[in-house]
Write a structure and sequence with these properties.
mainly alpha, Hypothetical protein af1432, 54% helix, binds fe (ii) ion
């Protein structure tokens, strides 16, 4: 028997299952050739099916897995070449051996070029045929194993890529949370609870998008806007928190904050561009700003955009000593200062956004903040209710005598008096301690931001 199939490990306890011989499809319009080959191969242990033409062969190949097709080249109607091409396209895992007549080696070579694994001259010798079949099947097994391995590798690469992407996303989130914590630390020191920084980020992003800035550059500019005043952490309390006007010496201290902020973050590679924005966020288009009196395009584009966004927010926000003005007034003032304090192109982009869209940015942030406050309040209420319930349960446990206690014995839990109709809320016994006073709603510093400082 020629067919032996793959080698199986012998086991003393498990009976080996004989391998199923591979299905071989023999295609020839000549009955005698077809029958002789199939009979001989069956005797050798192969599982043979036959077809008298190319189209019939294609149908049979589609019915179940056919590892090998042995096909005549010349057949009436669709020929062997056509069948070869169809099989390669539809069933690329099927190997094809072509049978050619004498003097037709040219088309045999063409078949090899088109994907046949071998060709034999008709009529083939049995030994040659079997050798060609075994070679083709072995090659196919290797090819299938290679494909399986490749698929496994691809799956692994896909999984690792997803893991890596998730890890990068986590790192980015951590970075962002760290930046928010930094800003929150500054807010806490300045006793600010508003969300100036985050509003300025939104205005800055809106203007930047109008200037066709997108992707990582947009994100970096947003980070620069968020961190713009981070250097105020290094300004002494006596200056930063002074309620009255600053003396010229105190102003000198205050004006160090862009430099301090830059020094703080310049060595963090991820914050290299935001550091430039922090350093130049107090510069003016006309060179009258600080700390380096940069002018025009010497100022980082992020800082030029930020200057407009910051002014808009400062003018439209309430201060302890004054009410904020309208967006229309702020827009008019910013327009008036285009070319002196601000970059004209940036102001143009800013005006493109439109008053209503700018107001909406502020309203959306306010709504978001309210939702956060409500969520926080609901969470606190739920916690308080849980705490009350747990105390009530403790009290009830103490009033129920245990198995070893003197007296009439333990009363079943179900026999406890039901709460009176006048008892509000969940089941609370008459002896329950009074409800805890409502805790004040504490806003997460991360959820908010800081209010613009008049000394910016
Ligand atoms: Fe500033």
């Amino acid at each position: 028997m020629a067919f032996r199939g793959p080698i199986l490990l012998e086991s003393p306890t498990v009976e080996a299952i004989p391998p199923v011989p591979p299905r071989i499809l023999i295609v020839d319009d000549d009955d005698s050739v077809r029958d002789v080959i199939s009979v001989l191969l069956r005797e050798e242990g192969y599982n043979c099916v036959v077809a008298s033409g190319a189209e019939m062969a294609l149908d049979i190949a589609g019915q179940e897995e056919t590892p090998l097709v042995i096909s005549d080249m010349k057949m009436p109607g669709k020929d062997g070449l056509w069948l070869l091409e169809q099989l390669r396209e539809r069933y690329p895992d099927t190997s094809v051996i072509m049978l050619t007549g004498y003097g037709d080696t040219e088309s045999a070579v063409d078949c090899l070029r088109r994907g046949a694994v071998d060709y034999l001259l008709k009529p083939p010798k049995l030994t040659d045929l079997i050798r060609a079949i075994e070679r083709a099947l072995a090659k196919r097994r290797i090819e299938l194993a290679r494909k399986r391995y490749q698929k496994k590798l691809e799956r692994k690469v896909r999984d690792r890529t997803t893991e890596l992407r998730n890890a990068l996303r986590d790192i980015a989130n951590t970075y962002q949370a760290t930046l928010l914590a930094l800003v929150a630390a500054l807010d806490a020191r300045e006793h600010e609870t508003s969300d100036h920084s985050q509003r300025v980020v939104r205005y800055t992003n809106a203007i930047a998008e109008r200037l066709s800035i997108k992707g990582p550059e947009l994100e970096e500019i947003g980070r620069g806007a968020l961190l713009h005043d981070i250097g105020k952490i290094g300004v002494p309390d006596a200056v930063l928190l002074k309620p009255g006007k600053l003396t010229p010496e105190e102003w000198q201290e205050m004006r160090k904050h862009p430099d301090i902020g830059f020094q703080m973050i310049q060595n963090i590679p991820f914050l290299a561009t935001p550091a430039q924005i922090v350093l130049s966020h107090q510069e003016r288009w006309d060179g009258q700003g600080y700390p380096r009196n940069l002018r025009g395009q010497e100022i980082h584009i992020g800082a030029r955009i930020f200057a407009v966004a910051d002014t808009l927010d400062a003018m439209t926000s309430d201060r302890p000593y004054r009410k904020g003005t309208t967006f229309a007034n702020a827009i008019a003032e910013i327009t008036r200062c285009a070319g002196t304090q601000f970059d004209r192109d940036v102001v143009r982009a800013f005006l493109d956004i439109g008053e209503q869209a700018l107001i909406k940015i502020k309203e959306d942030m306010h709504l978001r903040k309210l939702t956060l406050v409500q969520a926080e309040a609901q969470a606190q209420e739920a916690e308080a209710t849980l705490a009350r319930l747990s105390e009530d349960m403790d009290d009830m446990d103490q009033t129920i005598p245990g198995p070893g206690s003197p007296g009439p014995g333990p009363a079943p839990r179900g026999a406890s008096p039901a709460p009176s109709a006048s008892t509000p809320g969940p089941a609370v016994s008459a002896s329950a301690p009074p409800a805890r006073p409502e805790q004040p709603v504490v806003l997460s510093v991360l959820a908010g931001g800081r209010q613009g400082n008049p000394r910016d």
